[in-house]
Amino acid sequence: MRFAVLLCLLALSLGACGAEPRDSAKEFTGAERAVAAAVEDLESAARDDDTDAVCTKLFAATLLASLEQRGTNCESAVKDAFDDADSMDLTVDDVTIRGERASAKVTSGTGSNKKTDTLELEKVGAAWRISSLRA
């Protein structure tokens, strides 16, 4: 269920009609910047239609395992979310780090389509990866 919600967020958040991309990670420093950069990487992968990067570099193993348990292919599901999006825009508003886990408050869309959600991330080696969505 959480993965379906994450893909819905992905599709909605990438629908900010023609908005110019803004690197909100620059507003953070240190480890918080690294977390925000992972979210910005998701936005960039969507703009580049790079489903492989999302599935191999941006999603955590726990999220991929959840997909497999549902019999869903990550690349197909992400591709569908990209196809449903009109444009791409995510803004990281806040980052909270708790050890090897982090949450990023993310705003997507504009005007009446503006929505705020929280992405959960986990640290894998030196990288932060998206593990779930908390609506």
Which descriptors would you attach to this protein?
single chain, 135 residues, alpha+beta, Nuclear Transport Factor 2, Chain: A, 4-stranded antiparallel sheet
Whole-number total of structural domains: 1
CATH architecture identity: Roll
Structural class estimated from helices and strands: alpha+beta
Mean pLDDT equals: 83
Q: How many strands, which pairing sense, and closed or not: the largest β-sheet? A: 4 strands, antiparallel
Q: In what order do the strands lie side by side in the largest sheet?
A: 1-2-3-4
3D structure, described in words:
The protein is α+β, with helices and mostly antiparallel strands. It has one domain: Nuclear Transport Factor 2, Chain: A (Roll), CATH 3.10.450. A hairpin with a 2-residue loop joins β3 and β4. α1 packs parallel to α5, α2 packs antiparallel against α3 and α3 crosses α5. It is globular, with a radius of gyration of 13 Å. About 4% of the residues have low confidence.
Summarize, please:
The chain is an alpha+beta fold.
